[in-house]
Write a structure and sequence with these properties.
With 610 residues, this protein is an alpha/beta fold. The protein is built from 19 helices and 20 strands.
Length: 610
Amino acid sequence: MPPLLLLQDIALTFGVAPLLSGAGLAVATRDRICLVGRNGSGKSTLLRIAAGLVQADAGERFAQPGTTIQYLSQEPDLAGFTTTLAYVEAGFDAAAAEGRHRALYLLKELGLEGNEDPASLSGGEARRAALARALAPSPDILLLDEPTNHLDLPGIEWLERELAELRSGIVLISHDRRLLERFSRRTVWLDRGITRVLEQGFASFEGWRDAILEQEESEQHKLGRKIAMEEDWLRYGVTARRTRNQRRLAELHALRRKRREYRTATGTARLDAAQADLSGRLVAAAEGVSKAFGDHIVARKFSTRVMRGDRVGIVGPNGAGKTTLLNLLTGALAPDTGAIRLGTNLAPITLDQRRESLDPKWTLAEAMTGGSGDRVTVAGESRNVIGYMKDFLFRPEQARTPVGVLSGGERARLTLACGFARPSNLLVLDEPTNDLDLETLDLLQEKLAEYAGTVLLVSHDRDFIDRVVTSMVASEGNGNWVEYAGGYTDMLAQRLAAQPATSPAKPGRVKQPRPAAQGGGSPAAARRRMNFNDQRALELLPARIAALETQIADLTAILGDPNLYVRDPERFGATTEALAVARDDLAAAEEQWLRLELLREEIAAAEPRY
């Protein structure tokens, strides 16, 4: 199928260093493409060139005549429109009745009414209005730059379903790993100005990327050895046959030039949180806490205990009160009724989602040092601010850059740098994943796993939650919060197990259970019995889970060969696909076992005892 939109050999330079130098992109009907790369690699710029909003210095952009293209920017402009409905309707040429119906539907799904004044919208509300405008006309090409920013978990899951139903060719930039894995069928990697294409979804990307980087490192090592040998010949070799020597000298200069022009991959940020002394065993205890703002009830008789070393995730729709609950648990906000008891020797650090702790007038160096010279104290040690900047992937020449002109990803890294420099034993993270690239997210997950203190986390990133937290506090509506063991996927499995068998949930919708801690087994459980198939499955599933875990370990070991992709790309692809299938089978088996085990326990608890 010929592409509707084609970019070839795109080059663009900002300042001195080239941002794009031979990038390309091809989009056809029903394509599902994820565009990935480090912060600052030029992903958003390439998307704007594709949308026709930025002119490249060189290269070709071609769109089939009549192709409609919609673009979602990270910073939409709603100026000149009286309402959000008028803004969305201006995005397409459909008949008035049809257009208004579609616009109102999308706005409602995204938490807006259509009568809002664009001038009074928050940044998140403006982004949701812009997303509605991009989706409304069902264009031929849909270019989405971080569409999940400022969406809550139900909103992200709704967006997944909405995108799946579109015929549009879609190019998506996102840090939401779960969305990328479910959405994409092709991956375009923008790295050091050029694009590489993997004809598979994001689930296969990281192994493919690592194989390429390892191959490049090997080739650079060989190039360095060859240069060393030629330099040794130049110093000590035979000087006869001058023309031959001149040729070898020219080749040496070419090798040196090749090494100079090679752009190394961007380094990895170093995220080491300074550790304070251990807190007391109890970090926080809430007992019957309630909080309301007018008629809006945020928390209703909520009780919990947070112990040292816990990693607690807080999730819920926008407006449910996640940040308020976070402030209650840390003592930053007093409850209306009930009591909050904080532990001893707490040294908290809060990283806020709006980066409000950053003064836009500061320079990067001033933000890191607090305006006190060129030294920053990290874990009790004085370090030069330039060296500390490099740990977070900032270049030395950015030291005097005002904070206000930094990109969203750079401000996110700066917030982490400032927070992690101070000793702490309690990390309070409110949407820390916004604008971070995938590699920095991976590193942040690793560092949080190693962190000796306690973590309280508000996030809409399902994969990040699953990898970090040990328990969940989820909004069930009307000020009710329920605790679940494990991460987001575990929470869904527990909710599924708690649904009555006679009232299955609609596809894509999860019914909310009553808190399990309020009594024994339910009457529905007492009426149910495990049939033969359920009992047999419960007996066989542990062996199947063990076999799948062994299979996954074997496949992972095969992919551990750094030269596999170069030596046998077909086997690499087959192994990667088999690993993805095995992981899906394992997740399904574990979920089925958990559901059946919870059902067995609930039936046992509901049986009368004499």
